[in-house]
## 1
Amino acid sequence: MYKAGWMRCHDSHELSGIGMTSQRTRDRMAGRLAEAGITDARVLDVMAREPRHLFLDEALAHRAYEDTSLPIGHGQTLSQPWMVARMSELVVASGARRVLEIGTGSGYQTLVLSRLVEAVWSLERIRVLQNRARMRLARLGVRNVRLRLTDGAHGWPEAAPFDTILLTACASELPVALLSQLSDSGTLIAPLEDADGSQWLTRVVRRGDGYDHQRLERVRFVPLLEGVIR
Ligand code: SAH
């Protein structure tokens, strides 16, 4: 009896957060994001509420609310909070209801999006990462996210068109399939690499068969890679 009670208590502490993973720590993070120029109140609210530390290995959880990207295994990283906030803000500004994400990774960006839009389809090429993300999202009761293991360059044709497509890995050229899965006046947000190797967060808006490109800011992402790792 005692053990079961302790387990429950431990579990709820973990979800509500203690110490370095407490609500106060998250509120401070949201405050820093606002100071750094994030203006969307819903994005700030979601990030102040949701447990980023549950998307990292236990050994790194105490660093979850630092302004830094962190390793999630297989050479991949969970983006720093500012980047997640900025991309979420751009997704909200695009007026999205149905969003396709390329690069589920830890699932944290997926979680934040799921609280801001109607439904999220998220693709990942590494099975181990996808499995962990699936468990975390299920545990948090997220029901409006669908995950698929595939090379994200193919997109998710059966669920297209999407209002917004978000890449969380950097491409040098945008996969044609992704552009074709945008709804008319839909928006794609992606880090894109220049010939000189610099990466720029880029917003592409579909206008019929044409696409308007707009460069936003310099960023640093892991590369978009080909194939699936089972
Ligand atoms: N949004 C993630 C960031 C993960 S880093 C998070 O919040 O944790 C980028 C992710 O993109 C990695 O998990 C990587 O495996 C994945 N990725 C890279 N190329 C891909 C591709 N072609 N298709 C699907 N996922 C890809």
## 2
Amino acid sequence: MFIVLEGIDGSGKTTQCARLTSYMAGKLGQDAVVATREPGGWEGGDALGKFAIGGDLCCGWSRVMLFLADRCEHVARVIAPSLEAGRIVLCDRYEASTLAYQVYGDPSMPEGSAGRFAAMSAAMGFPRPDAVLLLDISAEDAEVRLSARGGKDAFDASGKDFFERVRSGYLRQMESGKGGWILINAARSEDEVFSEIVLFIDKLLGNWAVRV
Ligand code: TYD
């Protein structure tokens, strides 16, 4: 089973991923769950991940392709083997991040880029998530949250408008009806958000039999 958490910076996604990993490992056993992240979720992937995020590039498609290269390695080395071994993969960001950040978030990307991205991504044959949990929060609330913990560099660098575009990019993907998307109101307390995630995960796991 393949579960992905998505959301803009400051949505609380990384904290919720860590809590969910412990919850599932407690329920199903440590070996049953593989927690990973993009970019850079593979051994040696840090340099590519850092360059994909912060590299000085002037063509939007270059950045898209760096995130795709990172994903190719991540899928080949971590995600696909774990799924084949019958494990549950919990991934902090995946394809939807690239579409939301690099395509919908970037006004310089030409009309039709979302469709082109979908075709490129399909050509790689990446595994499809069984569920994408979208931690939804306004850019304004996310910025307040990040300021409180002194980490709003991303907002200072990219601006609130960018994160509003990314948020709408996520919502458009959810509405485009591919299925498997769960919308979670992330503007609430950490515990409230986690309880809702657990409700959904318990339902999803059902009588999940772990074959490790
Ligand atoms: P990270 O420090 O992991 O932030 P977080 O824990 O909030 O996810 O940085 C991930 C950054 O990478 C984040 O700003 C979004 C960006 N990103 C993209 O722009 N496109 C992508 O395809 C992925 C996977 C991440």
